[in-house]
Amino acid sequence: MPPDEEFLAFWNKWLAQPRKSRPDLDEALRNMWPVKADRIAYCRWSGRRADERLHARQMTNISPEELTEMLATMNYNNEIARGKLVNVLERSVVPWLPVGSDRAGGIYRIVPGAYGLLLDQQDPKTNRELVSMNVLGINTNESTKSNESDDSDSAGFVFHQIGNLEYWGGNPDDLRTYEDAANGTWFPTRFHAVMRFGRNGAANGVFVIYDFYPGDEYLQERRKLDDRDWGYLPSDVSDQPISIAKIANKITDLRFERTFDFVGPLDYPVELVRAMKTPEDTIIRVTVA
Fold first, then answer.
1. Candidate ranges 56-70, 79-93, 127-141, 185-199; pick with highest mean pLDDT
2. At residue 6, does pLDDT exceed 80?
3. CA-CA-CA-CA torsion for 109, 172, 238, 216, nearest 10 degrees?
């Protein structure tokens, strides 16, 4: 009987394929495991995993400190580690993370989540295995347009989505404790927090990226912005839009008792792309031609 790791690898590989070209699941199962007993074993594993994921979503036994430690130390190249992180980030109740105050006095936090940012093209042309969309790539150079990325640091990077950036809507003097924060009013910013990671899978900075596909409450769908009114933070006084900026070198730097800058902000729209595996089991960007 195949081990659980093989079942998980099969599921992640099937799920990461573009929807238009993704084979029927039953067909993929038969191609992967011609022996019926192995397919039955996979179905039983899948059922157990669904129950476990539902139970995990309902649990709240992880503290902000434990979540921070997980984000800081995990190997983002490791498929199993990423799966465990997604299970935590997508629970129905999960602790939020303080960010701190910017130079203008705005106070921010991260509400965890593994998904949120969308791409212009979700089905790129590549022969390599795509990674699920909790991990994406970003092209930060306006001239970066190619079929496959060399993952140069000057042109962009890959990241794992970790949550929504929210802004404290009350009087800053009223925010003195975590209880105040939990009971206070927070507003969305349309920015998402992400963890950049390097070729070695190690965390390499916390960034915020603007969401160019906000939800349309009337149409009940997400559409790309077609105007220039984007990228403005609630506390901003510079009248300068931001598509991406760095907010911390390490996730462990985040706390309410810190003042931070939005470092290296870009004022033009960036390109988000799918991420893919390399033969060396690292993750790089797929860029759009």
1. 185-199
2. yes
3. 50
Taking the alpha carbons at both ends of the chain, their separation in whole angstroms is 43
User: Is residue 266 a contact partner of residue 245, using CB atoms and an 8 Å limit?
Assistant: yes
194's tokens: 């992400």
How far apart CA 96 and CA 86 sit, in angstroms, is 15
The DSSP output letter for 260 is E
Q: Identity (one letter) of the amino acid at 18? A: P
Tell me the whole-structure pTM to 2 decimals.
0.76
Helix (H) or strand (E) holding 224, with range, is: none
Query: By C-alpha distance, which of 269, 272, 288, 18 is closest to 149?
Result: 288
At 127, the amino acid letter reads N
C-beta of residue 260 within 8 angstroms of C-beta of residue 101: yes
Structure-block tokens of residue 165: 């950036």
Say which residue the tokens 């907010």 belong to.
247
